[in-house]
Amino acid sequence: MSCCSGRCTLIAICFLQLVGTVERQVFDFLGYMWAPIIGNFFQIICVILGLFGTYQYRPRYIVVYCTWGVLWVAWNIFIICVYLELGSLTVETPALTLGAPQSISWWREHGIGCQVSNTTATSTNPTVSGCLLDFTYVEMIHAAIQIVLAIIGFIYGIYVVYMFTEEDDSFDFIGGFDSYSAYQAPQKTSHMQLQPMYVDGPAVE
């Protein structure tokens, strides 16, 4: 396949997903966001499988990548709903923190232009002001980027699996014309029965 094919495009998308997920994982570690940390870990593994499967022509690995991509989209939609505080969801929901203390987005206090006050030893909710962009929007932007990349990766993943399958079928079809090809072993072995040959001629005394 040429470098402008769907295979190379999928490799590029997986690479962008890997870079974005590793960056997200670093800041989730800094904020002790344990549920996103676990989700990012599985995302990194499945993206690596997708890269390997695409590069080594392994469609089964790409199917695993695409299947996880559906779950990854659903998870990031849930994160957006959490930061939008839809329904009974809040940013302190245990689904993100897993009940761990002092678990909050790192961007809440370290965003661009943020000024933190009331940071005493006993304060658990410091006052943050002056942020150029609120941490909820930062987290939603991260989630939205992951959703877009996952959808594009899913589409190209299905396309690449289809292309690999078509190539395998075409090879089998070509080999099917010859019963002694590399794809099809001979079914029966013919045997020739040897018979003695008699030649008419003068008898030798």
Automatic annotation (TrEMBL):
GO terms for cellular component: plasma membrane. It comes from the Eukaryota. The chain crosses the membrane at residues 34-55, 62-86, 143-164. The keyword Cell membrane applies. Residues 1-24 form the signal peptide. It is found in: Cell membrane. Belongs to the NKAIN family. This is Sodium/potassium-transporting ATPase subunit beta-1-interacting protein. Pfam families: NKAIN.
